[in-house]
């Protein structure tokens, strides 16, 4: 058995199945992945300009701007001119955005609770630790690539 070949396949299947499970689970009108992550960043970091969000997600400004437009249109994010640099637009999560974010978080927690119901606490903790380690390594690799 080639472990890396199996790992590549399992990660691809994991990504697809998690998204499929999330979509079929939707007890609420869950946010799509990009909206969820943008709202999460604004919730965690406070108001940000578009360039800051682009840096957080390692995307170009045009891509993040396309992802922001529908959530601004839905009233989940507010735009206002930056006080210091009037050329910049500052984005902040609205009360409606906070409510949508929390509803999506709760829906996802319920889904994961169902999927992991028969796992021991040790198994859950080990899975979490390995997933965090994997994500940390992906983040580190992206930073290394940018610094080249």
UniProtKB/TrEMBL annotation:
InterPro entries for the chain: HTH_MarR-typ, MarR/SlyA-like, WH-like_DNA-bd_sf, WH_DNA-bd_sf
A single BP term in Gene Ontology: response to stress
Keyword DNA-binding: yes
Domain of life: Bacteria
Assigned keywords, A-Z: DNA-binding
Residue span(s) of domain HTH marR-type: 4-136
Molecular function GO labels: DNA binding; DNA-binding transcription factor activity
Name this protein carries in UniProt: DNA-binding transcriptional regulator, MarR family
Organism of this sequence: Alicyclobacillus hesperidum
């Amino acid at each position: 058995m080639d472990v890396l070949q199996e790992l590549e396949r399992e990660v691809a299947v994991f990504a697809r199945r998690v998204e499929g499970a999330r979509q079929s689970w939707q007890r609420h009108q869950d946010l799509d992945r990009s909206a969820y992550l943008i709202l999460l960043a604004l919730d965690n970091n406070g108001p940000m300009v578009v360039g800051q969000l682009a840096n957080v997600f390692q995307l170009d400004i045009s891509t993040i701007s396309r992802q922001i437009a529908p959530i601004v249109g839905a009233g989940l994010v507010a735009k206002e001119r930056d006080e210091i640099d009037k050329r910049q637009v500052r984005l902040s999560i609205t009360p409606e955005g906070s409510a949508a974010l929390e509803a999506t978080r709760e829906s996802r927690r319920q889904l994961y609770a169902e999927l992991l119901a028969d796992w021991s606490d040790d198994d859950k903790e080990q899975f979490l630790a390995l997933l965090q380690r994997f994500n940390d390594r992906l983040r580190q690799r992206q930073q290394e690539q940018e610094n080249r």
